[in-house]
Amino acid sequence: MKSKIMMTAAAFLSFAIAASHAEEAPIIHRGTENLVAVPFHVTNEADQPIACGAALAHWYSASIGAAAPGATITATLWSNPKTGEIFVLNEHEDNMPIQRLWCGLQGQDVTSGSDVRLERQAGRSEPPIRLDCRLPEAGETLRCQRQDAS
């Protein structure tokens, strides 16, 4: 009986120690409260379809949209003016932080892409993102130029 109590105590102690060293789960924020909408417009001036995407973590990315030649990708990103963070929302409206944003040729958008510069300034919201994307004659890399907000 004494050994059974000792084994139970040892198992409980092991569990307690393991639990005390466990990492806390990150807090996931939902919805658009305290966020500002950031219009995202990309005009495809290339002769091939393009796609834009966002890296949300080093192993995960999300599609922002795709456009045929002459068409436009329109989406809404979200900015936290307090921190300068930029988000895309998933189907549950979880705030998914954007680490990197790009546009490239559809099907090879990461390798043929052009990074989209984000301002990310604490104390102000991200300005609207308006891009014109072209494919240079001698290149395989899409070139996207940010237009001034009007």
TrEMBL record:
Sorted UniProt keywords: Signal
Signal peptide positions (record): 1-22
Highest taxon above the source species: Bacteria
Protein name: Uncharacterized protein
Species of the source: Hartmannibacter diazotrophicus
